[in-house]
């Protein structure tokens, strides 16, 4: 009986992978999001980042419109205040944007961090761009930079175990607070 239990544990361990120096959290449910995003956006007509600027700021959750780029809330935020900086042009790669777009994107990332510090006092930030399908971009067809505010202890097992993320504010409340602080 004990041998069967030991064999079962060994079999389960082999399914999880061979241990090494990394701690890994296996989240296969995320593949639906990763694959789903790729199939939905093929061109400018199906792109939410191209559609956003055609709507009101409140409807699209835009917090700032610049000359070449705009700042919008992520509809599926990792944390409250998760912003995306997008060029107006429908381009997929960082290497496709102009010098002016690059400069404005960088300036907007810095300003976004300053505003988020005022509005919600995060302990840190994650900044990044996922390039291409293989790079993990949910919408690979339109370049966007993430600005994610982080707080000590904001990461827990709730999203992994329950497939749920607790966000304490509505998107419209967050958008209003960030937009109000943007020009202060």
TrEMBL record:
The active site is at residue 144. One of its GO terms (molecular function) is nucleotide binding. The keyword Nucleotide-binding applies. It comes from the Bacteria. Keywords: Nucleotide-binding. The keyword Membrane does not apply. Substrate binds at residues 74, 146. Residues 49-157 form the HIT domain. A motif (Histidine triad motif) lies at residues 142-146. InterPro entries: AP-4-A_phosphorylase, FHIT, HIT-like, HIT-like_sf. This is HIT domain-containing protein. It comes from Glutamicibacter halophytocola.
